[in-house]
Amino acid sequence: ILNVEQSPQSLHVQEGDSTNFTCSFPSSNFYALHWYRWETAKSPEALFVMTLNGDEKKKGRISATLNTKEGYSYLYIKGSQPEDSATYLCAFNAGGTSYGKLTFGQGTILTVHP
Amino acid sequence: GAGVSQSPRYKVAKRGQDVALRCDPISGHVSLFWYQQALGQGPEFLTYFQNEAQLDKSGLPSDRFFAERPEGSVSTLKIQRTQQEDSAVYLCASSVDSYSNQPQHFGDGTRLSIL
């Protein structure tokens, strides 16, 4: 059973604050690490797919880093806005015989207060 | 629209009834995935298809759960003799294929409540 953990479980920040959260995953049999943002009443939206150790990806004010040797990824949001409020999910892909199968963490619920 | 479409959005059924959930993937997407999300948890993998072939069904919780994608496009997830523990959000996702590390594109989900 693959163990994907996210921390913290929830986070409250003020508008303008920068924040970050963590996803930890097995360091063996790594194929890819996905990040998704899931706003209430909407569908999960893909943010990043990360595949290489040391990868850094950026999309606007959101960026992510990847360390496959130690099994963690950080997601950073610079200058949080109320519209960033959502659940942020990471998902691990071990490849092998089931390339498409994603194992999700439980998510980090971010609330940005105006 | 161009996204993944799921129907119905909400489904209420009595324990013991059969239900069928539909997923219309993005046109041209080869891979299709089903996930189950219980309250307060992340989505859990149920099964996935590459075209019409069901390559992995290791996440289906029991033989009451059955998925098909007969023509390699629309997929149906069927749950027979529903139980209260089947209450969850069922998410469908599609991707260009499962080998190239493309993101999965999700539908809005079907919220299933078993009374």
Radius of gyration of chain A: 14 Å
Considering residues with a beta carbon less than 8 A from a beta carbon on another chain, report the largest interface and each chain's count. Answer: A-B, 28 and 31 residues
Categorize the overall geometry of chain B: globular
Strand content of chain A: over 45%
Number of helical segments with 4 or more residues of chain A: 0
Based on secondary structure, the structural category of chain B is: mainly beta
Q: What is the structural class of chain A? A: mainly beta
| N-to-C series of helices and strands of chain B | EEEEEEEEEEE
Q: Give the CA-CA distance, first to last residue of chain B.
A: 33 Å
Termini separation of chain A comes to 40 Å
Overall description:
The complex is a heterodimer of chains A (114) and B (115). Chain A is mostly beta strands. Chain A is 0% helix and 52% strand. Chain A is built from no helices and eleven strands. Chain A has strands at 5-7, 10-14, 19-24, 32-38, 45-50, 56-59, 62-67, 72-77, 86-93, 103-104, 108-113. In chain A, the strands form two sheets. In chain A, strands 2, 4, 5, 9, 10 and 11 form a six-stranded mixed sheet that branches. Chain A has a five-stranded antiparallel sheet with strand order 1-3-8-7-6, with no helix packed on it. In chain A, a hairpin with a 4-residue loop joins strand 7 (62-67) and strand 8 (72-77). Chain A is globular. The mean pLDDT of chain A is 93. Chain B is an all-beta fold and 115 residues long. Chain B is built from no helices and eleven strands. Chain B has strands at 5-7, 10-13, 19-24, 31-37, 44-50, 53-56, 65-68, 75-79, 88-95, 105-106, 110-114. In chain B, strands 2, 4, 5, 6, 9, 10 and 11 form a seven-stranded mixed sheet that branches. Chain B is globular. The termini of chain B are far apart. The relative contact order of chain B is 0.33. The interface between A and B is medium-sized, with 28 and 31 residues.
